[in-house]
Amino acid sequence: MHMLIKNAGIVTNGKLETTDIYIRDGKLERIGKNPEISLTTCNTIDAGGLIVLPGGVDPHVHLHLNTPAGYSADDFRTGSEAALRGGTTTIIDFVTPHKGQSLVDALDERIAEATGSIIDYSFHVSPVEWRTTTAKEIETCIERGFTSFKVYMAYQDSIGLKEDALFKVMQSVAKAGGIVTAHCEMGDAIDNLRNSYFREGKVSPLYHALSRPPETESNAVKKAIELAAKASCPLYIVHVSSAESLQHIRKAQLNNQKVFAETCPHYLVLNESEYQGAFDQTAAFVMSPPLRKKTDNEALWEAIHAKVVQTIGTDHCPFTLSQKSAGRNDFRKIPNGVPGIGHRLNLLYSKGICLRNDFDFDQLVNVFATNPAKIFGIYPQKGAIEVGSDADLVLYNIRIPEQDLPDTSSSQYDTDIYKTIKTKGIPEMVLFRGEVVVDKGIVIHQLKGRLLTRGLFDNKTGCH
Ligand SMILES: [Zn+2]
After folding, report:
1. How far away, in angstroms, is 315 Cα from ligand 1 center?
2. Domain ranges in the chain?
3. How far is the CA of 190 from the centre of ligand 1 (A)?
4. 93 C-alpha vs ligand 1 centroid, how far in Å?
5. What topology does CATH give the domain 55-375?
6. Domain 2-53+385-443 top-level CATH class
7. Is 35 helix (H, G, I), strand (E, B) or coil?
8. How far apart are the CA of 61 and the centre of ligand 1, in A?
């Protein structure tokens, strides 16, 4: 099985240049003008005028997530299809054990749930409590190639960790050579605010946002950074939403602490005004942390430019309006989560490259694919256009004029928070493992996604 992509516009050292890419057996075999191969035996794609990027790596998705409001509205089959149509060919989801369950058993259960994926996938593993066996379980996960561990400082009544447990997890992960990823929100402070709003009869989605003010995030970010420094543990802060949090992250990075930050498309392009209105208009925007101010949007874009934020994950976790309605009379019961898995590239191109002077293709490739692959131990197999990398590529057509954001979803949820947004260009063609799987935005061929095991955290990881 081999293929030649002619006239591909690729980003090299910050510059767009035109080249040819020769693919064999699912890998990139040669990159350069006019490779000496016999065109008669080879499928050829003329990519003239298209930008060719590495397939996206989304480091933060929740597919088929079990919640009190039922499963999130995308399973591994439908979610991976949406990802693929949007140019993402690798996802990292989560393993969340129930209390008393070993991380390793929960990992095996979760692996079995993901077999419907049509793109490659891996998992972060979440210790939701500290038990005598937790350190050993972390070691076993790492030996098996699952090298990142997600901790929650929010949700103290279910999966959240108290400070002492969090510190022990960080010490164990550091010792075993992994990385901790952290949901930073002060759970107790938030619970107090939530309950007091509810007691005052303030029950609408607006109070979801007001009960999670920016300082509940930034105080948790500060705390997580301090604990990680003490434990000498690499730290990756998920879904950073506020300018205050960025200040702590920037400071730690200046001190040469291994701290990475992710933000999500919704924190870049939407703001708190979405919480003004009736339940049916506002419930869709309930996610944690909540949407912030326009000044936070701007601070996050600037932090991407300054390389304080390294990745864009979608935190994809859609629910239908009917599921969100569990909290119609009590915002505390609205399932948290929004879609985004298929929109990352479109939004970054349209709202970043087309509108900003401080965001270019080089940065797009870094936050969309290369940096998450590096941080989570799958580079250069993923996230790179290099000889030997997997032949996962997106051919983006920038000539498509402004239009409604293409609907990538194959699921029936009615809560797409981006539906009023216009974007430019489309991921016209996607190659996965060297085969054309998406053409003109439609999945034309399905391959079976593979479970990716990942390398240890590389202390030299330099992200760009
Ligand atoms: Zn999440």
Report:
1. 5
2. 2-53+385-443, 55-375
3. 17
4. 9
5. TIM Barrel (3.20.20)
6. mainly beta
7. coil
8. 6
Contact 456, 369 (CB under 8 A): no
Cα 94 to ligand 1 centre (Å)? 8
Domain pair 2-53+385-443 / 55-375, same fold? no
159 CA from centroid of ligand 1 (Å): 12
CA 64 / ligand 1 centre spacing (Å): 13
Retrieve residue 415's tokens: 């809560």
For residue 7, report the distance from its CA to the centre of ligand 1, in Å.
Answer: 38
With b for 16 or more beta-carbon neighbours within 10 A and e for fewer, the 306-325 pattern comes to ebbbbbbbbbbbbbbeebbb
What is the rounded CA–CA span in Å between residue 462 and residue 220? Answer: 25
CA of 29 to the centre of ligand 1 (A): 36
Ligand 1 geometric centre to CA of 65 (Å) = 10
CA 150 to ligand 1 centroid distance, Å: 9
On the question of a cis peptide bond just before residue 380, with omega within 30 degrees of 0, the verdict is yes
* Ordered per-residue pLDDT tens for the chain, 464 residues: 799 999 999 987 778 899 999 999 999 999 998 767 666 668 999 999 999 999 999 999 999 999 999 999 999 999 999 999 999 999 999 999 999 999 999 999 999 999 999 999 999 999 999 999 999 999 999 999 999 999 999 998 899 999 999 999 999 999 999 999 999 999 999 999 999 999 999 999 999 999 999 999 999 999 999 999 999 999 999 999 999 999 999 999 999 999 999 999 999 999 999 999 999 999 999 999 999 999 999 999 999 999 999 999 999 999 999 999 999 999 999 999 999 999 999 999 999 999 999 999 999 999 999 999 999 999 999 999 999 999 999 999 999 999 998 888 877 788 889 988 999 999 999 999 999 999 999 999 999 999 999 999 887 776 66
CA of 404 to the centre of ligand 1 (A): 26
CA 96 vs CA 99, 150, 151, 268, 350: distances in Å: 9, 9, 10, 28, 34
Q: Specify the amino acid at residue 141.
A: C
Cα-to-centroid distance, 434 and ligand 1 (Å): 30
Name residue 342's amino acid: G
